[in-house]
Amino acid sequence: MSETGGVVVVGVDGTAHGDAALAFAADEARRCGDSLQVVTAWQYEVRAPAPNVMPMPLDTHAYAEQEQAAALARAGDLSDLVVAREMVEGEAGPALVEVARGARLLVVGSRSVGPVRAALLGSVSRYCAQHAPCPVVVVPGAPAEGEVGALAFDVSEGR
Q1: Which of 91, 73, 81, 76 is nearest to 7 (CA)?
Q2: What would the pLDDT profile of 28-49 be if each residue is shown by its tens digit?
Q3: Residue 3 class from Cβ within 10 Å (0-12 exposed, 13-18 middle, 19+ buried)?
Q4: Residue-range definition of the domain harbouring residue 57
């Protein structure tokens, strides 16, 4: 946590949606004097390359670390922020909710596309909006230059 503010937690997964969430979270952290906690969830995955072939475990932890590092590189200069990186084993929704305990804000991207689906939240963003212990901002993909778009959910009583 920064000396002057709280913590903004952001879920990053290596997609353009995750990059948009990271950009929004960094701007919000700057605006409020918060630190930024960048979180990437990962799970062990086992796949068989073909039928009747022994499954091989994939090194998803290393891949997730690479994706997070690449997202931070794409985010540009974050040197004005206190940035913590965290890799969490597990499903993204529950992992982000757990890390967000004590945070001022949780920011996630949404993969919804099209006019009808844009009104719906994806499974991770929906899980976070329903279960997070702090307010949640769902950033709907990369906005056009000069535009900012987000959905905010307050978890206070009587939502």
Answers
A1: 81
A2: 999 999 999 999 998 876 666 6
A3: exposed
A4: 7-153
